[in-house]
Write a structure and sequence with these properties.
Keywords: Glycosidase, Hydrolase. With about 700 residues, the chain is an alpha+beta fold. The protein is built from 15 helices and 33 strands. It has four domains: about 130 residues, Immunoglobulin-like (Sandwich); about 400 residues, Glycosidases (TIM Barrel, Alpha-Beta Barrel), CATH 3.20.20; about 55 residues, no CATH class; about 100 residues, Sandwich (Immunoglobulin-like). The longest helix has 20 residues.
Length: about 700
């Protein structure tokens, strides 16, 4: 007899015999948040208490099952709504995984990260990694991503100049019109944003309510994106400070950067480099003064062809105080930093390994150079230490680093040690597509940019669009089953300490802007033109997405300008400038309110997650702890929907009242307080079209209906 038939048979038997209430599977719950795992981040070789919840007097037994060994859980407490069972287990210095087996009469079921299941699957077991802790400040932190060149120009004297140097086939361009769309080949375009601009806008960032700034790369680099690092020791003076500005621009007839004397002085003169580092330290100090942390972008898989260790452009060849680069001569102290295929072509050997074949991105050859390995460990510690005091690293293409999986894991283990020894409160998070489980082992990455368990499911559900705007899938649009299934599957790759700090983005520098995805136009700037990214967008859908972002487990991450209504196809178009002077003020205020709601309700930052309902373009879920509950309901249909939502299994009394914190609709949004009755554990509610609502139950404001 299969599981469903067995449940029905047991229900009939109990009903006929007048026995206890039927088996209530909705009431079953556990996870690894602090209400169900104590301590929530245990040390090795310690005792932990694991809890499980069930309806009152509704189950016979529940076992915690670890490696096939069953531990009987005893009833620990009752809160009037549920029974709580507990058992104590000893954890060692390795991952501890488990699921639950629930017995009701002849019925046996499994409970794991999927919820109720027929049989145990190791992939979905609850997991504890003793000794793995993530900083308290990062749990649920609101992050703001800044692509510096496009944020704000606070110091025009450090702007990259037109024809200052040559890069990827042409000379640099200083963009005079701040509002111009980025060019299709925009790597050489510079708008002039800088760190002084960030300092100038600190009031704005603080008023927005963010907890963390994540900077795209800041180190000396020839591009505006700076993922082709030239010097890991210094902040680029073009976004920092230029105090010495000697030399000439490249003449029209010249294509050789060894003659770009103005550029060479700007980026090799230690006066400029030290002044820029000092400015960065000032930015971090000011951010910290306002309660804002700072995360740097680390590009350690590859560097740039301009890098002083390679020096393909011969920028450092005759600069004072620099060793010869590996491109220049075979005797370079940096020769082992790179893999050369032809040993017989020095001087000026261009036969090196480039990441994905790009000669502008030489791949770093750690396996062959302990000096390089040690130096990058020094860099890892340097920027999270005084006087800079950054609060962590985001790691670019982290899974690509090295030439073997074994070395990749070794590198990140050592990197994390170096960072944590220098700053025990710093975090290490990685860019990663796909399953991150093998790196989220408590010894390497703390967490990841959360594509699989946030950006993609949210995008597919609300827009039907792929994250680059390269495809539209009608079968994915509004598909709540796919949304919930994807979330359950991919979130199982995280332990709770990783999940609570995962970078939950709607947009970033590598993908189209979420607001543009709402127009459901498939294409890019080179196929549709940049103007098309602005057309037919739906801010109401963006507001729905922000409600989900600000109430989902993890660290909601705003890509600069999303809060102000910036559009754009995938990069480089998604790297448009912040629209100072013509921001969408209503959208900014909405973000402020949702950030406030996120920060004021602890159950959102560290509480449990449970689904309420799902249908075509309908989604409901709760975030809760033992004291407070947030309910989020989304109607992404183009018509209103009236339906009944069961909420008692979130811990809300069956006769009670919920208070509205936010309602966003097609017309706008409101934070006006409104009460909704809960009757027999259910809410009957009409959701306007293209809407989302955030409701709260708190024992402190129990309504008249509460019993």
């Amino acid at each position: 007899m299969d599981f469903e038939r067995l449940v029905r048979a047991e229900k009939n038997r109990q009903y006929i015999s007048g026995m206890r209430p039927v088996f209530n599977r909705k009431a079953l719950f556990s996870d690894t948040t602090e209400d169900y795992l104590s301590p929530s981040e245990p040390s090795p070789y310690s005792q932990v208490t694991i809890r499980f919840r069930a309806d009152l007097n509704n189950i016979d037994r529940v076992f915690l099952v670890n490696r096939g060994i069953k531990h009987l859980m005893l009833k620990e407490s009752c809160d009037g709504n549920f029974d709580f069972f507990a058992c104590q287990v000893e954890v060692e210095d390795e991952e501890f995984s488990y699921h639950f087996e629930v017995q009701v009469g002849k019925i046996k079921c499994i409970y794991d990260a999927r919820g109720v299941a027929k049989e145990a699957v190791p992939e979905y077991a609850f997991r504890i990694i003793p000794g793995f802790k993530t900083p308290k400040w990062a749990k649920g932190a609101v992050i703001y991503q800044i692509y510096v060149d496009r944020f704000y120009n606070g110091d025009p004297t450090n702007d990259v100049l037109t024809s200052e140097y040559e890069y990827i086939g042409d000379k640099t361009v200083k963009v005079e019109d701040w509002d111009k769309y980025p060019a299709v080949m925009g790597v050489r375009e510079f708008y002039g944003g800088d760190l002084q601009g960030v300092l100038d806008k600190m009031d704005y960032l603080q008023e927005l309510g963010i907890n963390v700034i994540y900077f795209n790369p800041l180190f000396v680099s020839p591009s505006n994106h700076k993922y082709d690092i030239q010097d890991y020791d210094y902040i680029d003076p073009h976004i920092g400070k230029i105090v010495s500005d000697e030399g000439e621009l490249l003449p029209d007839w010249c294509r050789e950067n060894r003659l770009a004397s103005r550029y060479i002085d700007r980026v090799t003169n230690k006066k400029n480099l030290e002044a820029s580092n000092e400015l960065f330290a000032e930015v971090v100090k000011e951010a910290h003064r306002r309660g804002i942390r700072v995360i740097l972008d680390g590009v350690f898989n590859h560097c740039g062809s301009f890098n002083k260790w390679m020096d393909r452009e011969r920028i450092y060849e005759n600069a004072e105080g620099y060793e010869k680069g590996a491109h220049i001569c075979k005797e370079s102290p940096y020769n082992g930093y790179f893999q050369f295929y032809n040993e017989n072509v020095w001087p000026y050997n261009g036969s090196y390994d480039g990441w994905w074949g790009h000669d502008t991105l030489p791949k770093l050859n750690y396996e062959m150079s302990k000096e390089l390995f040690d130096y990058i460990m020094h860099v890892a510690a340097k920027w999270v230490s005084p006087p800079y005091n950054a609060d962590g690293w985001r790691l670019d293409v982290a899974a690509d680093l090295g030439h073997s999986p074994e070395f990749n894991h070794y590198f990140w283990q050592e990197f994390r040690k170096a960072v944590r020894q220098a700053n025990p409160d710093a975090i290490v998070l990685a860019e990663h597509y796909g399953n991150p489980r093998e790196w989220l082992n408590g010894k390497e990455w703390d967490t990841v940019m959360n594509y699989d368990a946030f950006m993609e499911p949210v995008t597919w559900f609300l827009t039907g669009m792929q994250k680059h705007s390269d495809d539209y899938r009608g079968d994915m649009f509004g598909n709540a089953d796919h949304f919930m299934g994807s979330m359950r599957h991919y979130m199982a790759s995280f332990t709770t300490p990783s999940l609570q700090i995962a970078m939950n983005e709607l947009s970033n520098h590598d993908h189209s802007r979420f607001l543009t995805r709402t127009n459901k136009k498939v294409g890019r700037t080179n196929t549709l033109g940049a103007q098309a990214a602005d057309e037919g967008v739906n801010k109401a859908v963006l507001r729905e997405a922000v409600v989900i972002q600000m109430t989902w487990p993890g660290a909601p991450t705003i890509y600069y300008g999303d809060e102000a209504g910036v559009c754009g196809f995938t990069d480089p178009d998604s790297r448009r400038t912040y629209p100072w002077g013509h921001e969408d003020q209503e959208l900014i205020q909405f973000h402020k309110e949702m950030i406030r709601i996120h920060k004021e309700n602890q159950e959102i930052c560290t509480g449990s997650l449970k689904y309420i309902d799902g249908d075509y373009n309908i989604l409901g879920y709760g975030r809760f702890n033992r004291k407070e509950v947030i309910v989020v309901l989304v109607n992404n249909n183009d018509h209103e929907a009236t339906r009944e939502f069961s909420v008692w299994h979130l811990g809300i009394p069956k006769e009670s009242v919920m208070k509205r914190l936010m309602l966003t609709t097609e017309e706008g949004y409101t934070t006006e307080t409104y009460e909704y009755p809960v009757t027999a554990g259910k809410m009957n509610i009409t959701l306007p079209k293209t809407s989302a609502i955030v409701l709260k139950y708190n024992r402190k404001f129990r309504g008249k209906a509460d019993k």
